[in-house]
Design a protein that fits this description.
Radius of gyration: 17 Å
Strand content: under 5%
Distance between the termini: 36 Å
Order of helices and strands: HHEEHHHHHHHH
Structural class: mainly alpha
Helix content: 40-55%
Shape: flat
Length: about 210
């Protein structure tokens, strides 16, 4: 099947403009302040120091945003593959949902970090991001056919909120655009059954559903 892109070039360009990156030349101008107030929206009453448990997840510390946005991959203090600011955002945003919802967000965030590390390897890494989407699709659409609860009403990693959070600097957006360009026009296979969609989840769904 023809690939349905996670983050289309047109939307990428629109987001680039919205964040004020278009035409910026210096490295310092590539930093975004679009997410500087997200903690006030999602984490009222919680410390920025981390260590608190929210919906079963331990919060990493809130990173210094200037330092976090000064590199492509940012800060991941607990080495779980998810940037700390994105991890906190996902935990707070989905704290009133089943833990599987947050885990799907984590899987997508890890995949996003992997694909931008070396966009030239897009044809070797695209399946990692696709797997996160397939897992999401299972719990959004196909779970009902296997007598499991539908836990989602949207696709997390294709949402504007997620993309704005994950790709929040010029460098990160441009890395994704380079990845996307490598895959442009390609035809790629997808899952053949609902169970294949479930198998794409990178976490133990059976264990989490049993909690």
């Amino acid at each position: 099947m023809k690939r349905a892109f996670f983050f289309s070039t047109a939307l990428s360009a629109a987001l680039l403009l919205a964040l004020g990156f278009a035409g910026c030349e210096s490295r310092s101008s590539s930093k975004s302040n679009s997410n500087s107030n997200y903690t006030e929206e999602y984490s009222s009453g919680y410390s920025k120091e981390g260590g608190e448990i929210v919906n079963g997840f331990v919060l990493p510390p809130y990173p210094d945003q200037t330092l976090n946005d000064s590199t492509l991959l940012g800060i991941d203090s607990n080495n779980n593959g998810v940037r700390d600011d994105v991890e906190r955002w996902l935990i707070f945003k989905y704290k009133d949902h089943h833990k599987i919802v947050t885990e799907i967000g984590f899987q997508g965030a890890r995949a996003a970090q992997i694909i931008i590390q070396d966009p030239s390897k897009a044809k070797e890494t695209y399946h990692i991001l696709d797997a996160a989407q397939f897992c999401n699709f299972y719990f959004e659409i196909y779970a009902q056919y296997n007598n499991e609860s539908i836990l989602l009403d949207h696709t997390i990693i294709t949402s504007t909120a997620f993309k704005t959070m994950q790709f929040n600097t010029k460098e990160r957006i441009e890395a994704y655009l380079a990845y996307d360009k490598k895959l442009s026009g390609g035809v790629y296979s997808g899952p053949k059954s609902s169970k294949d969609y479930r198998a794409a989840c990178a976490f133990n769904a059976d264990k989490l559903l049993g909690e």
